[in-house]
Every structure is written in structure tokens, then in C-alpha cells.
Amino acid sequence: MTIDTPSMTSLISDPDLAQVLDGADVDDLAVLIDHITDKGEGRISLSSAACKKLVDAKSTGRADEASRALIAEELQRFGGNSLFNLMRGGAGVPYKEVLCDVASHVNARYSSKNDCAQIEIAILEAILEQSLDKMSEQDKENLFAEFGSTYVPGAGPVVMAALQAAIKASGFGAFKLAAVVANAIAKAILGRGLAFGTTAGLMRGISVFAGPIGWAITAIWTLFDLGSPAYRVTVPCVVQIAYMRQKAAYRSCPACSAMVDIGKKFCGECGNRLTSLLPAPASPN
Description:
Layout: H1 15-21, H2 26-37, H3 48-60, H4 65-78, H5 82-87, H6 95-105, H7 116-131, H8 137-146, H9 156-169, H10 173-190, H11 200-204, H12 207-210, H13 212-220, H14 231-248, E1 250-252, E2 259-261
């Protein structure tokens, strides 16, 4: 897996996207490219030139700064209607506007005053909440256990409130949530899951979470009205970016593969000294 080092000056004008895309793994960018280009088939509102550039970036296994900026630009364009984009000179809408639109579309509980990471988590929780009806009681028990909590049967809102508390209390709760939802949606739309790379050790530890519970998320995907061509791009892309943002916050210990907070000098699991500084997310301009 190739990881390009983020530059000091980003070509991406939107800082909320630059934070994620500038230092993202190419495998994760490839998922975004597939969502934007309809697996390389192209879309009516995507120019053939832009489609070719993105597909080429994916096929070569590398994504330079211009390719990353193009991903951001196309996502922003899909986030607005054609008239609005025309008035903006084709620049599309800010990512946070796209994010709030998607949050409203999936009935997430959020405030536009929240930062992007908080709104993204609200979207993931909304998708998870709607998948609970597709889960067996055993699946729900496994889900709560994954976050170090105990499932107590009850009404939907009560169960979800308890689950949200468990997610917040779990050390890697937000990352686990983002990984499983993004993986399930990639399978539902693209026919393949994510390439977890350096986080594979952690993902192996939550195989039950990614199994039946992931299938439940996939099963409810059709409940979201994706009749609009824009939503067929923005909804899965926002979920993928949510995963990428959470992933950027952590790196794995080279000795035991445990996830490590950025900036830590020692692994909290095995005590291994982290000999090289862990890369931090790219700073916005």
C-alpha cells in the first residue's frame, strides 16, 4: 500500500477535505474514486476527462496532489445542484454543506454548529441505528460486547442511547464504527470491502462485528433514497471520508499492531517504543 506524504501547501481549497485527503492511503482514495466514477463507468454529471484522470490515478496505484484535489472538487460538485454550481463557477459547495445535507438525508441527529468529525459520527450512528432492526438478539449482544458493554433488550431509542454511550466509552469506538459501516457500504455498492492495511490487526479482532452486523448494515442500505444521482455519490463518499478521518487519527504499533494515538512515544498495549514519529494529519491551509 502506497502512502503519499502530505505537502505543506495543499491544492485542496476546502480545509475539511484537505485534512483527510492530503495524507490518505491510496487504497482508501480508490474507494472514493469508484464511488465518484461509478467503478470507472462514468456518470452524466462527471466529465470524461475528470473520470479518466481519476481512473488513471486508481489504476496506477498512486494519487498525486492534483488527483486528490480533483477528488475533492468532484465531491463538492456532486454536493450542489447544477444551477448552484453554475453560480459558483462550477466550484461546487463546501464539504460541510455536503455533509449536513447527507446528515439530514439519513435522518441523523446533528447540529450544523458541530465540526465535521462530529457530524460524520452522527451519520454513522444513524445508519447503525436503522440496521438494528435487521439484527438478531445475538447480533445485538455481540455488537454491545465489541464496545465493552452489555446489551439489555428494550425499545429502539433506549437501545441506541445505550449503544452511543458504549461507543463513546470504547477507546477505539469511533474508528470501529466508521470502519464497519464504510466496509459494509463498500460491499453493498462496489461489491468489495475496504483494504485495511496497517489496521488489519485491529479489524481481525472485530470479525464478529464486521460479519453479521456488517451484513445488517448492508441490508438496510436500500432504505436510503438514492434516486438522486448526487446522493448516489455523496452518501457513500461521506461515509468513506468519515472512516478515513478516524483512521488518520490513529496509527498501529509495528510490534503488536495495536492502534496508537498520534504523538505517543510508547505503545499502550505492549510498551514498545515508537522509534519514528507517527505522521500527523495534514494541517489545513
